[in-house]
Automatic annotation (TrEMBL):
PANTHER family: 2-METHOXY-6-POLYPRENYL-1,4-BENZOQUINOL METHYLASE, MITOCHONDRIAL, METHYLTRANSFERASE
InterPro entries: Methyltransf_11, SAM-dependent_MTases_sf
Alphabetic keyword roster: Methyltransferase, Transferase, Ubiquinone
Protein name: Ubiquinone/menaquinone biosynthesis C-methylase UbiE
Coiled coil: none
Pfam families linked to this entry: Methyltransf_11
Molecular function in Gene Ontology: S-adenosylmethionine-dependent methyltransferase activity
Stretches assigned to the Methyltransferase type domain: 41-136
Gene Ontology BP annotations: methylation
């Protein structure tokens, strides 16, 4: 898996993207059947929000390992996470550095669709699960039902050389695809549900501010565009959101698939 975030992206991500997506975390933890005293692995932890929520559930008798391939993300997570039951680690989701049957639950919040080999990563998740343990993952769906991935789709159209990387946002576009991946990875009792949240912003400028700071993969690619191309992308995104009036509040409905499977 590629190193997905630059240092500036980690800051922007924490300020905006995590704020908007944290409402999906309770459903993710419920799908993973996390309980007190559990040992939990959080893969692609980002800035640590899901790990923090899991640590509260498992309590002092449990433990959480929060890992990411991005050192910049882990640096931000280190500043955010104060719970002593959380251990941070750098690793690649495709080759987890843990023995078989170590964890009671493995979670991955909005990361699986970026992996170069989602099936291989899910197989690793299953390998490190104990018998009767559960994995739960959440993924984005299509551009028009995403929060910031829609910006990546616009960039991909305007700069085709970036399309392969940005189209990873939509590598798992529907419940059938996610269910198939979990099944092929060997999981049992598979459940996939679609959740929708209205994400509110004070204005389009508020919505786009994280992108201009380099937040998320879309933001990383946006800040590398030529200034005239940045203007083109911003205007197309604005039109795609039904051209909200300048300074007016903006609400975007975001769809997330949450899939789970037991070992």
């Amino acid at each position: 898996m590629d190193e997905p975030f630059y240092k500036t992206a980690a800051i922007g991500y924490d300020e905006l993207f995590a704020r908007a997506t944290n409402s999906f975390i309770p459903s993710l933890l419920k799908a993973a059947q996390i309980a007190p005293a559990h040992r939990v692995l959080d893969v692609a932890t980002g800035t640590g929000a899901a790990a923090q929520a899991a640590a509260i559930v498992v309590g002092p008798s449990g433990s959480v390992i929060a890992g990411d391939i991005s050192p910049a993300m882990l640096e931000t997570a280190k500043r955010n996470l104060k719970n002593q039951s959380i251990t941070l680690a750098t690793f690649d989701a495709h080759a987890l550095p843990y023995e078989d049957c170590r964890f009671d639950a493995v979670i991955c919040q909005l990361g699986l669709m970026f992996f170069s080999d989602p099936l291989g990563a899910l197989s690793e998740f299953r390998r490190v699960l104990r018998p009767n343990g559960w994995t739960a993952v959440s993924v984005t769906t299509t551009p028009e039902r995403s929060l910031f991935a829609r910006i990546g789709a616009v960039i991909a159209r305007c700069a085709p050389e970036k399309a392969e990387k940005l189209n990873r946002f939509f590598s798992i576009p529907d419940a059938t695809c996610l269910h198939s991946l979990l099944h092929r990875a060997g999981f049992q009792e598979i459940y996939v549900q679609l959740e929708t949240r209205p994400i509110k912003f004070s204005s389009f400028d508020d919505y786009f501010s994280g992108i201009t700071k380099g937040a998320t993969l879309s933001g990383q690619e946006y800040v590398q565009l030529a200034p005239d191309m940045q203007v083109t992308v911003r205007e197309e995104v604005w039109r795609g959101l039904a051209s909200p009036s300048v300074g007016e509040p903006l609400t975007i409905e975001m769809d997330v698939l949450i899939g789970s499977g037991g070992r």
